[in-house]
Amino acid sequence: MDNMQRGNRSASPSRPMQDKAPTSLPVMAYVPVQQLNTVYDTDKALERGTLFPELDKPWLGGAAR
Length: 65
What we know:
Elements: H1 42-48
């Protein structure tokens, strides 16, 4: 069994190390500032799964409707 069939990605005559995919990529996140306007009471927060009404987004089953 050759190196590719076993999943071994080490350097070999047929696969030099330069072909190896990078293990990390530079990224930048953007998080907008949020204002704290109001909060749910404890029972409502536990029911809805969030303390903040601004973050209370209904689950649509994976499809936008």
